[in-house]
Amino acid sequence: MKSAVAVAVALLAGAPAAFAQSAPSWATLPAAPPACPVSADHVVANAGLEQSRRAVASGRLTILAMGSSSIQGHGASRPELSFVPLLEAGLERRLPGVEVTVVNKGIGGETAKETADRLAREIEAADPHLVIWQLGTNDMLRDRPMDAVFADFRRGEAVLDRAGVDVLLVDPQRLPEGTTNPSFQGRNPALGEMARLIDLEGGRVGYAVLHRFAAMADWTGLERGGVGPDDLHLNDPGYACWAEVTAEGLAAALR
């Protein structure tokens, strides 16, 4: 029998990206919940994002969002309340006059290996200025060796660099400390170590980094700490908070 964590991380594996980006106008979408501490400090540019700054100056920015279920939007009560539409809306609020398109290519259950395998074709199809790569959570939940994860990361790095795109890395999410799911108990130290190493890699190669794991430590005022009843996927307040933190930091770096 599969373990609970294997079922959870594989739940949406192989499914197409959940939501087409036909979300309503950003003016109709919610901003951060009152309990969400929004700060630009969680995004570190690492001297990157030059192409994206030029795109903002030209009035049109295209972003490709890659990763697993939190990019795909699993756990949101409605498609427009997931990360990608809310990020698009948050950036357009902060960058007046700029047309922002965020293309959702998240696939639930995906590891760094599977993202690296498809990066080239997704970049070719979307032709983005910026690629958001959310990674690390499923790798740690599947107990993949760090060396294997970062070998996959470096394969992806080669693809990204050949494409000449900017990159924003998103580190793992934090799991509820009080979870009763034995598959998730005690996982945060490994997830935190993965976040630390992603930060180092971002600095090494000049990719921007969003410190999601650190940001989530301040979400105690959100419903269930921003995580849904399965103790893994974000809920609506969690998605809203994550999107606003990302938009705040990214917009500040792109102005």
In words, what does this structure look like?
With 255 residues, the chain is an alpha/beta fold. Helix content is 44%, strand content 12%. The chain contains 10 helices and 6 strands. The chain has helices at 4-10, 50-58, 69-72, 83-94, 112-126, 137-141, 146-163, 188-205, 212-216, 236-254, and strands at residues 43-44, 60-67, 99-106, 130-134, 166-170, 208-210. The chain has a 6-stranded mixed beta sheet, sandwiched between helices. Strand 5, helix 8 (188-205) and strand 6 (208-210) form a beta-alpha-beta unit. Helix 4 (83-94) runs parallel beside helix 10 (236-254) and helix 5 packs parallel to helix 7. The protein is globular.
Shape: globular
SSE run: HEHEHHEHEHHEHEHH
CA-based gyration radius: 17 Å
Average pLDDT figure:
91
Strand order of the biggest β-sheet: 1-6-5-4-2-3
The proportion of strand residues reads 5-15%
Q: Tell how many strands the DSSP assignment holds.
A: 6
- Uncertain spans: 1-24
User: N-to-C terminal Cα separation, in Å?
Assistant: 51 Å
Indicate the structural class: alpha/beta
Instruction: Give the biggest sheet.
Output: 6 strands, mixed
As a percent range, the share of helical residues equals 40-55%
Supply the number of helical segments.
10
In short:
The protein is α/β, with parallel strands linked by helices and 255 residues long.
Q: Could you outline the blueprint of secondary structure elements for this entry?
A:
Layout: H1 4-10, E1 43-44, H2 50-58, E2 60-67, H3 69-72, H4 83-94, E3 99-106, H5 112-126, E4 130-134, H6 137-141, H7 146-163, E5 166-170, H8 188-205, E6 208-210, H9 212-216, H10 236-254
Helix pairs in contact: 4-10, 5-7
